[in-house]
């Protein structure tokens, strides 16, 4: 997600995407309440929770903005 207020990015994984967006935009999540409102920058579906956790680690290691830019250019 990307904050429309600050431009900052946030990456996370969840089993209930719609609920997670609502919680972030309602200010319930301590880590994202200063950036409300949030918009979806990219949603990637994974086959399993372990695959989602691995992808989240990879994205955070690369840097979210870099990951988004690199994957947008490669197709």
So what's the overall shape? globular
Oligomeric state of this protein: single chain
Q: What is the N-to-C order of secondary-structure elements (H for helix, E for strand)?
A: EHEHH
Rg, rounded, reads 12 Å
Bin the strand percentage: 5-15%
**Residue-averaged pLDDT:** 94
How are the strands of the largest sheet arranged? 1-2
Portion in helices: 40-55%
- Number of helices in the DSSP assignment: 3
State the end-to-end CA separation. Answer: 20 Å
Largest sheet: 2 strands, antiparallel
- Catalogue the unreliable spans: none
DSSP, total strands = 2
Which structural class fits the helix and strand makeup?
A: mainly alpha
Whole-number count of domains:
1
Topology:
Elements: E1 2-3, H1 17-25, E2 38-39, H2 49-62, H3 64-73
Antiparallel strand pairs: 1-2
Helix pairs in contact: 2-3
């Amino acid at each position: 997600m990307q904050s429309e207020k600050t431009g900052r990015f946030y990456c996370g994984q969840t089993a209930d995407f719609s609920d997670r967006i609502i919680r972030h935009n309602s200010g319930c999540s301590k880590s994202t309440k200063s950036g409300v409102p949030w918009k979806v920058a990219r949603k990637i579906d994974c086959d399993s929770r372990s695959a989602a956790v691995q992808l989240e680690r990879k994205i955070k290691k690369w840097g979210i903005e870099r990951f988004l830019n690199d994957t947008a250019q490669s197709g």
